[in-house]
Amino acid sequence: MSERGARRALLVGLLIAASPAGAEPSVAILDLPFRARALRGPGSEVAIAVATSGLLPLARSRSANPAVVEPEAPIAVVWGDAGGAALSLVDGQVTTTLLGAEAVEGLAATETPRGALPGSRRAVSGALSAHLADPRPALTGGPEQAGTLVIRERQPVAMGGDPKPVPVVTTPLSAAPDAAFALRRPRIARLDGKPIVLAVTVAPAGGAALALFAKAEPGAAATPGVAWTLLARSPEQATGPGGQPLKPAAIADFSGTGRPQIATVAAPDGAGQLQLWALEAGALRLAREAPGYTNVSPGEGEVDLAALVEPEREGAPELALPIADRSAVAILSLKEGVRERSRAPLPGLAAFGLASLGRGPATRLLVGLSDGRIAVVTP
Hints:
Elements: H1 3-18, E1 26-29, E2 38-40, H2 45-51, E3 75-80, E4 83-90, E5 93-99, H3 101-108, E6 123-125, E7 128-136, E8 145-154, E9 168-174, E10 180-181, E11 187-191, E12 194-202, E13 208-215, E14 228-233, E15 247-252, E16 261-266, E17 273-280, E18 283-291, E19 307-309, E20 318-322, E21 328-333, E22 339-345, E23 350-357, E24 364-369, E25 374-378
Antiparallel strand pairs: 1-25, 2-3, 3-4, 4-5, 6-7, 7-8, 8-9, 10-12, 11-12, 12-13, 13-14, 15-16, 16-17, 17-18, 19-20, 20-21, 21-22, 23-24, 24-25
């Protein structure tokens, strides 16, 4: 090899050695003409209401073939006292469509149905919804709690004839003798093709547990007139120093086994123990855990501070949530243990929401900061 060729090979080798193994996450601030105080992600009740309300239209991704009609992109919604906006991902960029704050507030009001615990939010999935009701003084002097979990199911209506009201079956469920439900938004998912509802219960001594409810199977063992029943309950865990009970983060097939697991954070205002629970043989088993994360923000109520990062094609989703002091967002793989894939420092503290737009490498994370700005994280 000539001297010039040797120098060129050495330079290439040095450049390769100096290159990072992967690009670091980048963070930018979304340009909005108002300070936000609420954020809802794709699939949320507010985002669906905005997308179907006629308030948009949203920009669409440009297609090389004008004859191809592309589906509408999922949206996130942010709002504050001085305005609101729908956010979508178009050609790799987060785009905004400004909305009136009053219009968004009106749509967001449905999150707390009549009779629900003030400050709570219901869960909705198709014809099924679940919310907390029957306010109770906290058993241990902490945040207010609920005595009842209300599950409502819209029933099919026969076609034809005069318009008919949609029949609804309502099932009230209690936590357990002498227990109550924590002010944690219920979650709805599917297990083995059947709907399940997840809630958090609090015992008189202050310990919190996951309670998983499923539709009662018809048969001799079924209680007449009871449509839903307790499927499984996790062991009780002590609350954090500030009295915050554990909080669900997401339900998804994190392990890639075809069955969903439940990601939660125990003592979210303390050590912040991220936990992954699996339903096995009719019981909830703690599969893995790691300290140093949170999905709550002081004074912000029941906000969503965790989001799924979906793969571009097949594969297990990852989980995005703040680290314990809320100064950064971490993206975690939960497939085999708890592995932190990346961490993005924020220009403020994560406060009133975290949502995800896009899939795979095109994912953009939206983080509501304590000063009302929206940070956009490119993982």
